[in-house]
């Protein structure tokens, strides 16, 4: 019922939103003699603000048309190269001729960035991808919005997520570097553990885990405490809703993106109110640069996707309530997940000093359970002065975190070319 009421509310305000857009255009028109007056500027700014807070935010574009390789501009084309109803693995393909001119015969490491399936789209990691593009073959998991996946496609739970990660690593072949950003950390660690247990030749060369709840018992944050204080029945009753007939995934039970967004905004409501008031003032003053930055941030932040009920509930139980991975009780399709089996994959953990979502120590816990990775193949880094999002985006990520990740991957990168890796992977599969 809540989902249907939300959609009804959005549709009922649509005429007013269109009227606000028309009014703003009319007030700013050069044909309007009063366009420079304070009243007209204020009214136009109010119309813009109304439109922005009532709009339906669609999935953002990648907006990465080019990258610079050795000062040569190289065209970039995001291309899905592996797909299921629940995920596309997107390759940021760089123009071959321009790339050869820029770098010669050098082979760049292959990196799979596993994006969170936690409400926002993979484009939230745009700046992460942008940092890697000049010197890496970059792939990313682009997870599907559950409301757009028909019921006939079946369920999607933690086991399916782990299966997807392993399948993509096998598609990319040996010597791939995997990066888990936030939520997927425990599941990527589980996938690598299972591959190591099977002595899979496509087990990645390195594994980087960033701001992730490997062990949510350490330095618990407000989201951790909420997950502990409520029982699963409460979450099912209050957080799970049915997708209405408007979408391909009609009748699927989901954790709606708008519910999660309301929860996140509620944690810092005054900050968002202040940001929108500043946006209104900048529109009145005609400060286009600051207004544009506000729009760019909220176009990304307010674009949300739904999660399947089974994935959300199992995540709460296994990661945030029963801590199965650090306690050694996690299983995947009947097989126990054993991180101690990892011996050949190097491990880097990255945390933010001010992270209020995954507290200090939660990511570092990966070192405690991957006991058989040689000490020389381990790295840990805490970035001073950044919160959760600063771990994978922003100036300090670009200048302080990414260089460490780059060096770490190259330290454990074999000279095997990507083409040879794919050939070996196919031979191994056969």
**Structural class by helix and strand composition:** alpha/beta
Number of helices: 17
End-to-end gap: 50 Å
In total, the number of strands is 14
List the main descriptive attributes of the protein structure presented here.
430 residues, alpha/beta, nine-stranded mixed beta sheet, three-stranded antiparallel beta sheet, 17 helices, 14 strands, disordered C terminus
Task: Summarize, please.
The protein has helices at residues 2-12, 14-28, 38-54, 96-103, 126-132, 158-172, 185-197, 222-229, 232-239, 257-267, 269-285, 288-301, 309-321, 324-327, 365-369, 395-411, 418-429; strands at residues 66-69, 72-84, 87-94, 110-114, 137-143, 177-181, 206-210, 241-242, 253-255, 307-308, 331-332, 335-336, 346-352, 378-383. By secondary structure, the protein is an alpha/beta fold.
Describe the model.
With 430 residues, the protein is α/β, with parallel strands linked by helices. Helix content is 45%, strand content 17%. It is built from 17 helices and 14 strands. It has helices at residues 2-12, 14-28, 38-54, 96-103, 126-132, 158-172, 185-197, 222-229, 232-239, 257-267, 269-285, 288-301, 309-321, 324-327, 365-369, 395-411, 418-429; strands at 66-69, 72-84, 87-94, 110-114, 137-143, 177-181, 206-210, 241-242, 253-255, 307-308, 331-332, 335-336, 346-352, 378-383. The strands form 3 sheets. It has a 9-stranded mixed beta sheet, sandwiched between helices. Helix 5 links the parallel strand 4 and strand 5 (137-143). The longest helix is centred in the N-terminal third of the chain and has 17 residues, at 38-54. Mean pLDDT is 89; it is low at 417-430.
């Amino acid at each position: 019922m809540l989902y249907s009421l939300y959609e009804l509310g959005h549709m009922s305000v649509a005429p007013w939103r269109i009227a606000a857009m028309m009014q703003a255009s009319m007030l700013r028109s050069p044909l309007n003699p009063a366009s420079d007056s304070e009243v007209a500027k204020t009214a136009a700014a109010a119309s813009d603000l109304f439109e922005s807070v009532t709009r339906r935010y669609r999935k953002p574009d990648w907006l990465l048309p080019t990258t610079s390789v050795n000062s040569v501009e190289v065209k970039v084309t995001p291309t899905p190269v592996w797909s299921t109803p629940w995920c596309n693995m997107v390759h940021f393909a760089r123009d071959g001729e321009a790339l050869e001119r820029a770098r010669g015969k050098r082979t760049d490491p292959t990196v799979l960035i596993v994006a969170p399936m936690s409400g926002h789209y993979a484009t939230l990691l745009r700046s992460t991808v942008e940092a890697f593009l000049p010197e890496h073959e970059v792939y990313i998991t682009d997870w599907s919005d559950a409301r757009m996946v028909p019921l006939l496609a079946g369920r999607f739970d933690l086991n399916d997520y782990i299966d997807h990660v392993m399948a993509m690593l096998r598609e990319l072949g040996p010597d791939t570097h995997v990066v888990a950003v936030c939520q997927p950390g425990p599941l990527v660690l589980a996938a690598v553990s299972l591959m190591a247990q099977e002595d899979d030749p496509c087990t990645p060369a390195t594994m980087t885990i960033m701001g992730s709840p490997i062990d949510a018992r350490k330095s618990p944050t407000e989201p951790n405490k909420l997950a502990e204080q409520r029982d699963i029945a409460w979450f099912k009753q209050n957080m799970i809703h049915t997708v209405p007939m408007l979408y391909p995934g009609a009748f699927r039970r989901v954790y709606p993106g708008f519910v999660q967004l309301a929860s996140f905004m509620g944690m810092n409501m005054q900050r968002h109110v202040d940001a929108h008031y500043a946006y209104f003032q900048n529109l009145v003053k005609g400060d286009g640069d600051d207004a544009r930055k506000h729009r760019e941030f909220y176009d990304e932040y307010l674009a949300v996707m739904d999660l399947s009920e089974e994935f959300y509930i199992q995540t709460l139980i296994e990661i945030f309530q029963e801590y199965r991975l650090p306690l050694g009780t996690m299983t995947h399709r009947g097989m126990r997940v054993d991180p101690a089996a990892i011996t050949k994959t190097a491990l880097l953990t990255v945390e933010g000093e001010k992270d209020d979502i995954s507290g200090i120590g939660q990511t570092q816990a990966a070192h405690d359970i991957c006991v058989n990775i040689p000490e020389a193949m381990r790295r840990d880094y805490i970035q001073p002065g950044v919160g959760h999002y600063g771990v994978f985006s922003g100036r300090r990520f670009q200048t302080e975190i990414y260089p460490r990740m780059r060096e770490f991957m190259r330290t454990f990168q074999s000279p095997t070319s990507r083409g040879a890796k794919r050939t070996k992977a196919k031979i191994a599969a056969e």
